[in-house]
Amino acid sequence: MMMLLKSLASLCLLAVGAFAVPAQEKRIHHQADLSDHAHDDVHGFQYDHEAFLGKEEAKTFDQLTPEESKDKLAKIVERIDMDKDGYVSHAELHYWIKHRQRMYIAENVNKHWKDYDKNQDGKIGWEEYKNTTYGFYLGEEFDDVDDKATYKSMLTRDERRFKSADRDGDSIATREEFTAFLHPEEFDYMRDVIVQETMDDIDKNGDGKIDIAEYIGDMFASEDGDGEPDWVLTEKKHFSEFRDANKDGYLDAGEVAHWVLPGEVDHADNEAKHLIHETDTDKDQKITKKEILANWNMFVGSQATNYGEDLTKRHDEL
């Protein structure tokens, strides 16, 4: 659902001299969705590609031809079919999607770990993180940065999230705590910081609550007097009928928590059901390699549709 459904997993860094400054982060959500794209098969299968392969891996296959994609997809299907009965069941597909999401998180944490663990002691202190990320600017109070207020706000936001992830309060993050810092949507004890960051992003007037204009404005901005698309009207209805539980015209922190922390939602389970429903031609509740390959562009992309590096890795790397 536009930017609001994007997870805040990445910490992209822009090199400045010996130090780096993080790009502005996207919002996080508990049990983050499987893709940064809207789940809209009418306009493409990018959501399904990222869910099936993992977000990072799904970016690299836009260089493959359709023939290469189908060939490599066939090898992945063999991997998913764990009991080797010739079918991919819901349980097997669900397990695979969860596996790919776990792999994405582990790879993302590993990628950043060596950037911040400067003394290589197997831990990352707040000072290590702060100095590596903002060190070039700290002494100048960000005076050399065009958007000074933004970087100060980002530092405050990072420190709050680091302290929330640091369960023992020693200002040093273990690998698990650093994972909670990078991927708070995966940890129940990070719920409060998720809600706070969502409020900070959407509550533009700073009154501690979200009105319908702020809610819609976070997802849609009309250009040149264009009318609102149908989905915006639907979101307005959702705001009034479902999000605003006490019907006071605003979302408070509790209502935001209900909205962005749907603890009962299992996106991997939903996606497994969706892929089987769309490709199971004989409706036996399981899919064959033939059925998958007949719908290959739903599972993977190619030069025209995007894909993931899962299929470029050796079979045993998956």
Biggest sheet: strand arrangement: 1-2
Tell me the fraction of residues in β-strands, as a range: 5-15%
Shape: globular
Largest beta sheet, briefly?
2 strands, antiparallel
Poorly predicted residue ranges: 1-31, 304-312
User: What class do helices, strands and sheet pairing give?
Assistant: mainly alpha
The DSSP helix count reads 13
Polypeptide structure, described:
By secondary structure, the protein is mainly α. It contains 13 helices and eight strands. The model is unreliable at 1-31 and 304-312 (pLDDT under 50). The chain is globular, with a radius of gyration of 22 Å. 48% of the residues lie in helices and 7% in strands. The strands form four sheets. The chain has a two-stranded antiparallel sheet. The protein has a two-stranded antiparallel sheet with strand order 3-8. Helix 3 (90-116) crosses helix 6 (175-182) and helix 3 (90-116) packs across helix 11 (267-279). The protein has helices at 46-53, 66-80, 90-116, 126-138, 148-165, 175-182, 191-202, 212-217, 230-243, 253-260, 267-279, 289-294, 296-299; strands spanning 13-16, 19-22, 87-89, 124-125, 172-173, 210-211, 250-251, 286-288. The two termini are 29 Å apart.
In short:
The chain is mainly alpha-helical and 318 residues long.
For this entry, give a set of tags.
318 residues, mainly alpha, 8 strands
List the topology elements.
Elements: E1 13-16, E2 19-22, H1 46-53, H2 66-80, E3 87-89, H3 90-116, E4 124-125, H4 126-138, H5 148-165, E5 172-173, H6 175-182, H7 191-202, E6 210-211, H8 212-217, H9 230-243, E7 250-251, H10 253-260, H11 267-279, E8 286-288, H12 289-294, H13 296-299
Antiparallel strand pairs: 1-2, 3-8, 4-5, 6-7
